[in-house]
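User: Show me an example of a complex going from sequences to C-alpha cells.

Assistant: Sure. Here are the input components:
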Amino acid sequence: MNYLSEFTKGIWKKNPILVLGIGLCPTLAVTTSVSNAFWMSIAAAFVLTCSNIVISLIKKIVPSHVRIPIFITVIATFVTIVELLLNAFQPAVYKSLGIFIPLIVVNCIILGRAEEFASKNGVLASILDALGMAIGFALTLFVLAFVRESLGANKLFGFTIIPGMEPSSAMIIAPGAFFTLGLMLWGMNKINSRKK
Amino acid sequence: MSAGIIKPSLILTVTAFVAAFALSHVNKITAPAIARQTADREREALSVVLPGFAAGNEKTDGSGDNAFRYWEGEKNVDDAAVKAYAFITSSPGYSGDVKSMVGVDSEGKILGIYIIEQSETPGLGARAAEIASSRTIWDIGKILSGKLKEEKTHPWFQRQFAGLSAGEKIKIEKAGDWTPAKEQALLEKNAITAITGATITGRAVIAGIEKGYERLRYVLGREAAQ
Amino acid sequence: MELKILFGILISTIFINNYVLSQILGLCPFLGVSKKLDSALGMGLAVIFVMSLASFFTFLLYKYILLPNDIVYLRTVSFILIIAALVQLVEMIIEKLSPALYQSLGIFLPLITTNCAILGVALLNINSGFVTAELGLLKSIVQGFGGGVGFTLALLLMAGIRERLETADMPENIKGLPITFITAGLLALAFLGFSGMKV
C-alpha cells in the first residue's frame, strides 16, 4: 500500500469534483465567495475524515445489506456536530452557508469514499484518502470561488478589489457557476490530453 | 431470511442510538452559545434603531404565529420625555423571510432599521447587509498588521430608511447604490434606492415595515384605550 | 384563496426557483441521467414521487416529534434516514412494475438518496416557515411535488439537448462534462427570465 499515493490521488488524478464528478451540489452553490468555500472545505474535511475513520473501524461488524443506512447515520451524526459547532461559534458562517451545511450529508464524496474505500481499507489509509480528497475538494472550490467572487462581486474574502467598479453579477448566480466549472473542466481536459 | 433481518436491524438500531446519544451531548454543549447570539443580535439591533433611547421592556401581543414583539423606548429631550417604539417584523424576500427590527418615533418617522435575519442571494439581495468598506484587498498588509482598523458602520441600504415616514407609502427608486448626494431627494419623495438587481429584497423590507407599523399602531391604540 | 397560494408555490418551485437551474441542487443525477430522454423521464418521475412523500413524512416528523421534544438537532439524521427508506421503497416498486426501467436507471436509483434536492426540499419546507403556517402540510407536499416537477423539467430539457449534442461537431476536449456544464449554464440563464415574476 503506497501511502503517499493514497494521499495525493485525491488532489489531481482522482480529484473528486473534476475527475470523479461527485460532490457537485455544494461546489457550485458555495463558491460565491472565497470565505464560503474555505469554511465549506473545513466542514467537509472534518466530516469526511471522521466518518472514514469510524467506518473503517466498524467495517467488520457491519452486515452488508444495511451498510448504506449505517454509513449514512454515521455521516449524518458528524454533519450535525459540524452544524451545531458552526452555529454556536461561527454564526455568520452558519448563516452564510445555510442549508448547504446539512446537505454535506448527501455530498456524494463522503458517502462515495466510505463505500469505495473506508469500508475496505485500514484506518490509516482511510485517513490519508480522506485528507487527500478533502484537499482536492478544497483546491477546486478555492479556484472556483476566486474566479466567481472576484469577477462577480469585485471582492475577495469580503475585501473590495477595484473600488468603484461594477462587477458582473452573472458570475455570482447559477449560470456563472455552471459556465466557470465547464470552462475549468475544458481546461483540465486540454492539460490532460497534452500530457498523453 | 428472518435471521438475516434481525441482526442487521439490531445493528442499525444500535448505531442510531449511539448517534443520538453523541448528538445530544454536543447539543447540550453548544445550545447556550447559540441562544446567546439571538439575544446579542437583538440588543445590538435595539441600540441601532432606537439611538439614544433607553429601550424599555419588551412586550408581546398575540401568540404563536401571530406574535408581535415590540419595545418602548424613552429619552429626555429638554426635560420632556420623548417616546419611541421598536418592533420586529418579517416579510418573504427572494429566498426566505427577511426579518428586521424597525424603530419609529411617536409620529411614525423611522429612526432606523436593522435587518436581523436574511438569506438572500449573496452579491444581490444579501447586499442589504453589506457595509460599504473603504478597505480594499490591496490594504491587506495594513489590515493584517492592525494599522487600518475599520469603523463598524451600518449597511448603507438600511441606513437610508432613517428619516422616512412609516405611515406613508415608501417608494423604491432604481437609481444605483445609495450615495450621500441622493439623500435629500430620496427623503423628499419618501423613497429608498434599491439594490441593483435585487428589488425584491427591497420590497420585502418595505412590506415588513408597513405590516409591522400597522400592527404597532393597532396595539398602541388598544393600550391607550385600556 | 388557498388555491392561489398553492398555485404560486407550484409556479415558484418549477420555474422561478427551479431546484436545478436556480438553486443548484440535484446536480449529480442531473448530469448522470440526462443522457437519454427515456431514462431521464423515468428518473424524473421517481424523484417527483420521492420528493412529495419525503416532504409529507419529514414535515410530520418535524412538527409532531422533533419540535415538541426539543430534539431539533436530530433533524438531519432523521430526515436522511426517512429519505433512504423511501428510496428503498421506490426501488422495490420500480423493480416490480418495470424491470426494464430498473435496469436502465441502474446505480442511479439508489443514488436518489444522495440527491441533494430531496433533502434540500425537506429542509426548505421547514425554513419556509410552513411548520407554523396554515395548511403547512399541504404547502410542503406541493413544494415537494413542484420541486420534483421542476427537476424533471430541467432533466428533460437537458436530455433533449444532449441527445442532439452527441452528433454535433466540437473540439475533442470540450466533449463530455465541459459542454454539459456550459449547456446547463445556458439553460440556467434562460430560466433567469422567470425571476422576479410575481404570482
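The lines above are the inputs; the final block is the predicted structure for all three components together. The longest strand of chain B covers residues 80-92.
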